[in-house]
Predict the 3D structure of the following.
Amino acid sequence: MYSLNHQHFLQAIIGHWESIVRQSLGHDFNAQQILRKADIMRINQGHYHPIQVSQVHQLINLTVNQLHIDGLGLRIAKRLKLQDMGAWGYAMINCQNIKQLLDTGLQFSFVTKDYVDIHIGYDSEWAYITIVDRSEGRSAQHYNVEESLCHYYLGLKNFLGDLFKSQYVFVDFSYEEPSYAPLYREIFTDNLSFNANNNQLRFPVNWVHHDITLQPAIIAHIATVQSQRLDNSLDSPLSYQIRFKLLSQMKYGLPTMEMVADDLNMTSRTLRRKLEAEHTTFKQLVLDTRMQLAKEYLANSSLPIAEIAELLNYHSAPPFFRAFNKFEGCSPKQYRQSASK
């Protein structure tokens, strides 16, 4: 059983798949006939009945073998946006630097975990992201290797901004150059190799210490998406606004009630009174927002408890542990174990 954030990501992948197929075969193509073969029930484009990871891989195989569309791993990775990734995307915008981003991303590999192993290593000169293919023929056209390396490459490019220099990035694939290699060269513009020893991305190790910089509009958009996933009620508009502000600023430190009230052009006393009318308090909203995020991280990733505490702006793990235990009635470890069943 997948969480809403799992479904959000899987449905985004299928939505991008539809766009790719229609672009390749024409807008009149009936995508539903292929979706049905993978037991994926379409509501409308971008919205489907609950999807399993295995269905995504079945759909990719059908697309390659029956529709003859190549390079789906590259095509889909190019289209994925941070807001497609649910809790994973929100966790990434809360990372402080590239190293934390890479380490955090490893803990959300639920789509590829049965098909590839991802290893990150460092030496005095280089950082390495190595993809070990375990698909044993179950992945059409190296889909998972393509998608994984492309995802990391484009992620580095987006998060580093002007600091990213493609001439210092080396991209190796362990298999022969495919017939659709021009697709690779559209993305990996420098230092691309096939028939290499490993599937690997290498870049200067000093990049991992660079701070992550994102446009405020992107952070706001992702916070909006996450706010909607945590609280879709329409009858508590002020609570929703506050949750959005908490999510937008959690990376930099949680705002006080006075700061939020000032931002909303009201006194803290007025804010308190308005929240009472919505049957909540500022303190309760802060706690609830943190705990809902904690449950998503615990259910959707293998992030260590200490890292989850850090992402939620706790100074250390013990206060988070106590707060979660009191809120949920079980420890974070127990919640993770029950969510995985």
The chain is about 55% helix and 10% strand. Residues 102 and 120 are 8 Å apart (CA to CA). Residues 4-25 form the longest helix (22 residues). The radius of gyration is 21 Å.
